[in-house]
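Hello Y.,

Per our agreement to keep a running log of every chain we model this quarter, I'm adding this entry. I've kept the format consistent with earlier entries: sequence first, then predicted structure.
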Amino acid sequence: MKVFCILSDERAFRLKSPDMFSVVMKRLGIKGRYVPFAVKPEDIGQAIQSIRILNIAGANITVPYKEKVIPFLDVLSEGANIIGAVNTIVCDGDILKGYNTNAIGFMDALSEADFDVEGKTALVFGTGGAAKSVVFILNWLRTDSIVVAGRRKEKALEIVDRFSGDAMPIFDLPDRPFPANIVVNATSVSSTDESPELAAVVEKLEIPECELVLDLNYGHTQNFWQDMAKARNIRFVDGLSTLAFQARRTFALWTGTQVPPEEFLKALDEDL
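Predicted structure for the entry above:
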């Protein structure tokens, strides 16, 4: 019996990952369990150490710890080191190695949506680990112009200095039409009750050239990103496809088994 887990804060128990991975393991005949753990910020180092102690076979890391776990890992993959964020931990004996499958999952989701970002302009909301993965891939795919909007401009500047692009405080976005062919929400916020201030900013966005709004979150009954896209007749994609594609990459790292992304998408459909 193998045990896998995901580490987050209190949001751990609202995630789709445990059910999704459990369905896929059952289909493949793998005897395993995937469990969520809610960890306090001050305990994240001890939680990582517990992966060794409890012989957990692999772990996912999500908000708000994708960057904070790095000092407690033994090795980083090249991609995780470049991006500066980890969402997957592979256990090799006592060695914990951090990987980033968020970036490739986002790229696969763009491909599934048949959206080519080369030569286009992007507006990315967020400055955490997810935003780093998104901006890395947008640069990799030769996006012509990227603006990173964050609550604090200095955090947005850290990302564009690491890769490329322009930084802007979220609440300083102009009232005039903004040139963006794709808008990506890489914050953890999608509903008005989570942040009325951000919802108000998004509602007023003027993006006449936008072709796609992609929200990395999922499972919100009320989603102001989706509402904004619908009001402007822009195609909207939520984070379920990104989740499925990055899960496929994670599962291969953990088990050496290549599973078609359709299996993870079907598992999500069953859970929904």
